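Troubleshooting: if your tokenizer reports a length mismatch, compare your output against this known-good record of 243 residues.
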Amino acid sequence: MIQIRNVSKSYGRKRALKDINLSLPHGEIVGLFGENGAGKTTLMKCILGFVSYTGEITLDSEPITPKNISRISFATSEHSFFPNLTAQAHKEFYSEHFPRFSEKRFRGLMDFFGLPMHEPIRGFSTGQKNQFEVILSLCQGADYILMDEPFVGNDVFNREDFYKVMMGILEPTETVLLSTHLIEEVSSLVGRAVLIRQGRIVGDVYVSELEDSGRDLMSYIKETYHYRADRVSKAIDELTGEE
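Known-good structure output:
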């Protein structure tokens, strides 16, 4: 389990995270939702140790260090691969550095998405680069897979294919923390939704609980964020009304 206790992070005078408390057990697909600038990416970077923070983050009661960081993988639309290397070279590098790297899963996903093995990644399209980034995160052999807007630049059909494939290959012990604005697309994929706003956790619910109460995920999010359905029509009236 990843345990996050009282984690805060500031960038200069700006408070990006404020007293975050969150547990991520084995075997869950968790959606991390929030507005731009809410703190989603910062939270993931804190878990990975990419930025300093106050508070405590542990993995199975141990600090996250170079000794256990391989149990966490990361897919980001900013990309973390080596652009001048081929997919084949990445496979060899990952096989050497991650003992649990799944070559079978890697080759299967590369074939499914039709990605070339012997071309430098820099020559891939944006969508292909995103696919390759996600493939690496799924094949590393990590127990916890963090995904930060991994589908930017991919068309709806590729995204739908990926959702289906991911659900089909994940082991029961693998946990996914998925940050995305594509809430309606992933509502049937995630089992739990964590909502963050202005650096604070404002909602944490299992989707099954919402369904039992007759609500859906989007309605819950709008309710939690106090979304005003009339704000668009009011804005249009103001913009088109006579002086």
